[in-house]
Amino acid sequence: MKHLYIFDLPSKSANNGIGTYIKQLVEMVRSWKDFQVSMIMLQTITEIMLV
Questions:
Q1: 8 Å CB contact between 36 and 30
Q2: 2-50 per-position pLDDT tens digit
Q3: For 14, left (φ over 0), alpha (ψ -120 to 50), or beta?
Q4: What is the pTM (predicted TM-score) of this model?
Q5: Cβ-defined contacts of 31-40 (< 8 Å, 24+)
């Protein structure tokens, strides 16, 4: 199995349109056999909700 790791810095990619490119790339690669895509989002804010 092959792996594709995409590292993204959302604030930067939002300004230069790379987000659209990444979405299209992921959609294309999903149809390939024996291929896994992992997206790593850098400097994101995560909230934990306690229920």
A1: no
A2: 888 888 776 655 666 777 787 888 888 888 888 888 888 777 776 666 6
A3: alpha
A4: 0.57
A5: 34/1, 34/2, 35/1, 35/2, 35/3, 35/4, 36/1, 36/2, 36/3, 36/4, 37/3, 37/4, 37/6, 38/3, 38/4, 38/5, 38/6, 39/6, 39/8, 40/5, 40/6, 40/7, 40/8
How far apart are the C-alpha atoms of 11 and 4, rounded to whole Å?
22
Look-up of token digits 């300004």: 15
